[in-house]
Amino acid sequence: MVNQRLRCWVVGLVCCVLLLLSEAAPAVALIHPYPEGAGQVMVRSLQTLRDESDHAWQAVLFKRVRDGLVVDFRLRLVGYPGAAYLAHAEPLGISTGRGEDWTAPDAFGPSRLNDDLAGNVGEYDFRDTMLRLQTDTPLRLALPLEDGRSLVLPVPPFAVREWRQLFDWQN
Q: What gap in Å lies between CA 56 and CA 45, rounded to an integer?
């Protein structure tokens, strides 16, 4: 009985030491290319972000590349239906951890395409934002709501790092 306990204790101790000494595997970026047709590919990063009320939002950053040229670079934000109603055609507010404030224009502007978007979906032209973003600083996205308020989505540094990797992907 004592030998069995001692053996279990030693095995547990060895496992703990091995875990402490082993290196963690690097995080794998979730950047995936999707062929869309002749000479065109869409490359995207998918992250789940949580707003200040702990509601989950899907953040899909994507770029379309046609014949080697980037034709679109957009951020699509999708919330749970009915949880929030975004003010379409309004810009997305962006704050950096370094005190900088930017905006990203609505991808569809005042066009009628915004009428077809659900209230829980927003899409923004993110190319200029990515050009300004030189570090993996955390971001705060302020989504404009129909009632005039803003819904804030914190973006952690690991997500910003992945977004920057997507921006640099085959550029």
A: 16
b/e for 47-63, b at 16 or more Cβ within 10 A? bebebeeeeebebebbb
- What is the distance between the alpha carbons of residues 134 and 104, in angstroms, rounded to a whole number? 16
- What pLDDT score does 124 carry? 97
User: pLDDT tens, 107-146?
Assistant: 976 655 555 667 889 999 999 999 999 999 999 999 999 9
With a cut of 50, list the residues of the chain below it in pLDDT. 10-29
Distance (Å, rounded) from C-alpha 145 to C-alpha 151?
7
| C-alpha dihedral (113, 118, 122, 125), degrees to nearest 10 | -20
pTM comes to 0.78
Assess contact for 61 and 165: CB atoms under 8 A. no
Beta-carbon count within 10 A of 104 CB:
21
Residue of 145, 157, 119 lying closest to 53 (CA atoms): 145
Q: Distance between CA atoms of 44 and 59, rounded to whole angstroms?
A: 10
Q: What is the per-residue pLDDT for 88?
A: 85
> Going by C-beta distance under 8 Å and a sequence separation of 6 or more, which residues neighbour residue 166?
31, 43, 44, 45, 61, 62, 63
